[in-house]
Specification:
Layout lengths: L5 H12 L5 H15 L11 H13 L4 H8 L3 H13 L2
Helix pairs in contact: 3-4, 3-5
Length: about 90
């Protein structure tokens, strides 16, 4: 049995959210990803900063304290405040 990799995981996730994806599309995506990334190590971000900024900002808007919102997002106090500053400046 072949070992599963990140491309297989990506395709499973795609099918989970887009079950009508055609087999031809899945093969084309797999071919392109393997051609570009095959044999190389790729870094996968744990969580996008923008997502965490939205999580923190939404929690604060809902009445949660900034300290609690930042703790719940799983980032340091300094990072939480930096993300909030970026979020506010993008409005």
């Amino acid at each position: 049995m072949a070992k599963s990799d990140i491309v297989d995981a990506f395709l499973r996730c795609l099918l989970k959210h887009q079950p009508a994806s055609s087999p031809d599309l899945l093969r084309a995506i797999a071919k392109e990803l393997r051609s570009e990334w095959g044999g190389r190590e790729a870094y996968v971000l744990k969580k996008a900063g923008a997502d965490k900024a939205e999580l923190i900002g939404g929690a604060i808007a809902a009445g949660e304290s900034p300290t609690q919102a930042i703790k719940r997002a799983g980032v340091s106090r300094a990072t939480g405040h930096r993300l909030l500053k970026r979020r506010v400046s993008s409005w």
